[in-house]
Amino acid sequence: MTKPLIAITGASSGIGEATARAFSAQGHPLLLMARRLDRMTAMDLPNTMCRCVDVRDRDAIAQAVKDAEAEYGPVDCLFNNAGIARLGDIGEQNPEEWDESIDINIKGVMNALHPFINSMKVRKHGTIVNMSSIAGRKVYPDHTVYCGSKYFVHAISESLRGYLAPHDVRVIVISPGIIDTEVLDHVTDPNTLKAYKDNKVRIGGGISADHVADMILFAYQMPQNVLIQEMVVTPTRQEF
Hints:
Blueprint: E1 5-9, H1 14-25, E2 30-34, H2 37-41, E3 48-52, H3 58-72, E4 75-80, H4 95-113, H5 117-123, E5 126-131, H6 144-164, E6 169-176, H7 190-202, H8 209-221, E7 230-233
Parallel strand pairs: 1-2, 1-4, 2-3, 4-5, 5-6, 6-7
């Protein structure tokens, strides 16, 4: 039996890449979307359509979904993963970094959801996995706008879950702590960067993105009438 199509934003690295590999290993065709097309194509996964997409571009997402569904059938699971961590002292941070965080982590999340809400509702089937963070459950110093964007993900996920649950569509939130990804590449504040790295060393390092991917796959593979509403995962020594 042909397995259904999985769509992933932010698929070029980190948890997005790991999740793409996990679902591909299970035989799913994939729609991978990210700004770094070369990184996605380098994975060389079978039955995979890669599209250079910035989640700030709603039309580009819609076109990529249309192209992939024409070839592989309807998307059964969206991993709404693309995001950026512009951490910094809120009093000193350039407001342009706030704009970028809001545009990608808030508007981008909604843009990625847009092609799927009604289509899954009509089909009465589907799974949406929204990427949040432990910072969407707790507030951290120098994470002001980032925390706000991830609290947003929790809020819209709860509302969307209530909206789609009567139609047998699942909405899952994944809230990781410190994971070994490229998230620090976006931090320009040297003091914030040092504090983050020092804390990571203190707890013995982050955990592999592969573990998060395995959790997402596990939640997806549960029967459609079983919903794991939220998964929070951190290194054991990350107590907050």
